[in-house]
Amino acid sequence: MIVARDLKVINVEMALSLINGYESIYQKIIGTFMENQKDLVETIKKLLPHNLEEARRLVHSCKGISKNLGSLPLYEVSLKLEQAILDKDYKLIEVYFQEFEQVFRDVLRDLTKIQFIN
Predict the structure, then answer these.
(1) What is each CA distance from 21 to 14, 39, 56, in whole angstroms?
(2) Which of 5, 37, 47, 72 has the fewest Cβ atoms nearer than 10 Å?
(3) Nearest to 18 by CA among 66, 79, 76
(4) 18: domain range?
(5) How many CB atoms are located within 10 Å of the residue 112 CB?
């Protein structure tokens, strides 16, 4: 059973619907994301001035996992940031990166509020 309260940017029901309700898979998705992506914002920040393609790849990967986490806000901002990077629109990159950073931190905070009870 999943217990989740006061979530800001995560919709657990949406995430579960994408994986046919398998809570154990959702728990693994969250665990893997928290472990592998915790430094994502800092990594992208370092890459943006010098390596747009690698930054875009990381944002694209985040966009891909965001729906599985249940976060449409993260998906939407990742989509906008990725497009700004592709367009090499540095002004929009800055705007969307700030939004991405905030939403990403909200996702991490929400994910720590989700409890799995056997």
Answers:
(1) 9, 29, 31
(2) 5
(3) 66
(4) 2-116
(5) 10
Count the domains in the chain: 1
What are the contacts of 50-57 at 24+ separation with CB within 8 A? 52/85, 52/88, 55/85, 56/82, 56/85, 56/86
Contacts of 95 (CB under 8 A, 6+ apart): 84
pLDDT given at position 74: 98
Q: What stretch of H or E contains 26?
A: helix 23-37
- Tell me the C-alpha distance between 20 and 51, whole Å: 38
**Per-residue model confidence as pLDDT tens digits over 41-77:** 999 999 998 999 999 999 999 999 999 999 999 999 9
Task: Read off the CATH number of the domain in which 72 is found.
Answer: 1.20.120
For residues 91-118, average pLDDT: 96
**Degrees (nearest 5) of the Cα angle 22, 13, 35?**
65
First to last CA, the chain: 6
Tokens for 59?
A: 């944002």
